[in-house]
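Q: what sequence does this backbone want?
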């Protein structure tokens, strides 16, 4: 009889932890949106603040995830009918967060390639190729330039 009660208590604790994760993921998704806006508007001070907020939220989520994993050792959340909906909601938000990160990374990668192309065509670089100790070609660093306009 005590084993059933412990299982019910553990399920309730698991649901409570996953609901906390769910609420935290809402905050993380909102912060990711702020981060994306700061990057596209080139608000570097806001970007720094958003990154520190996102890091703190991520640390909190990691702690909750550790607690959830410890609770999952005793009961299977996917097999429980009352736990499964909360688990699906958390997984859906995690997937949305991953998509947001991928989109932001692709935007940054594309912008970086574009700017690198502009700088390569505008700033004359050394003609000689440099090689590392392992024999791979090392691209020389760009020389310093001063711009009188914002790109």
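A:
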């Amino acid at each position: 009889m005590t084993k059933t009660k412990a299982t019910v208590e553990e399920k309730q604790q698991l649901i409570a932890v996953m609901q906390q994760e769910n609420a935290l993921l809402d905050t993380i998704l909102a912060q990711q949106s702020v981060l994306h806006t700061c990057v596209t508007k080139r608000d570097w001070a806001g970007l720094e603040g958003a990154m520190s907020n996102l890091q703190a939220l991520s640390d909190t989520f990691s702690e909750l995830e550790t607690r959830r994993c410890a609770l999952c050792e005793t009961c299977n959340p996917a097999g429980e009918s009352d736990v499964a909906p909360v688990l699906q909601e958390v997984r859906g938000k995690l997937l949305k967060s991953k998509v947001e990160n991928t989109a932001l990374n692709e935007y940054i990668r594309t912008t970086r390639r574009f700017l690198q192309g502009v700088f390569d065509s505008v700033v004359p670089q050394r003609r000689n190729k440099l090689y590392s100790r392992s024999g791979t070609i090392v691209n020389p660093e760009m020389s310093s330039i001063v711009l009188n306009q914002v790109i």
